[in-house]
What we know:
Strand order of the largest sheet: 1-3-2-4-5-6-7
Strand content: 5-15%
Shape: elongated
Number of helices: 15
Amino acid sequence: MVTSAIPRPTRPVIRLKDPGTLLAALPYLLGFHPEDSVILIGHRAPRPERIGLVLRADLPPPEHHADQAAQLAATLASSGDAGATIVVVGSHPASPPDGRPPHVELAEMLREELFAAGLAVFHLMWVPEISSGAPWQCYVDSECGGTLPDIESTVAAAAVTASGKVTHRSRAALERLLDPPDEVAIERRRALLAEPPEYEDLTVDPTERGFAVVRAGLLLADQRDLRLDDAQVVSLARALADPNVRDACLTTAVSPGSRTAKAAERLWLALVQALPSPEYVDAACLLAYAAYVRGDGAFARMAVERVRATVPDCGLAELMLTALDHAYPPDQMALLGRLDGFPDLSLPEDTS
């Protein structure tokens, strides 16, 4: 499984002459602390001190080393980055007898694949875990190594914390955000959604009614302490079930960091957690798109994969998965939400 954390314009500059700091930044680049992972950190051209695409995959069994190395290198090569730092995270299997770190075969295959793709390899490192004081070591130079600095005192930690983003303890912890916290409420809403809707004014166009419901939901989400009752959850689910309404909601993500974008992503996540299957799928697609556009490829992929597990032929999910696999830039993906014909769903006086 590959997790791509797409380039973000706001990522901090991390100097290549300090590999320990680069390793310590990984949780903040990915959004979670990686475990048993192989990671490629892309470096931008013509300024390689700037972080580009970051790719993470689970450590594979030996028989899959070659396939995974080829896939990761091909994805990074398509991003336009000048080169990469290779990082292997994990303390098993045992180190080779020559004293080099574990997983040598995978690391060397990755280096060869990157070279074959015309990319430079700036560092090739191993660390058992990303934690303060953990030892790290280079594969090529036996004298290259050290210990990680205080993870929470790095420039990357400060930048991410200041932005309001949360770094999770593991990939599993990040993925659990998509789980419903209240199964009893889920079943209650399943029953409500099975009932025919009751609308007081049948002269109102259903799509226009859907837009009004979404605008009201965004206003609620803008208050941060978002609490939706059953009626609101059901109304929003029915609104998003209209493809015209769902597609119009893509516009809320195209200005990452704006009030509208933040409120919308908060609303989509709340609905993913609050709705039964398959009704949560529309909100999950919007959540994935919002995460993608703001540069969080890891979370976008999690949401997309959950959609595909429920509705295998969802067109929007397939489009995003293809874009993730080929490192399609977020600013280009944002063009999908800028197509003509969508109504304005932005919050009042949102000039961000």
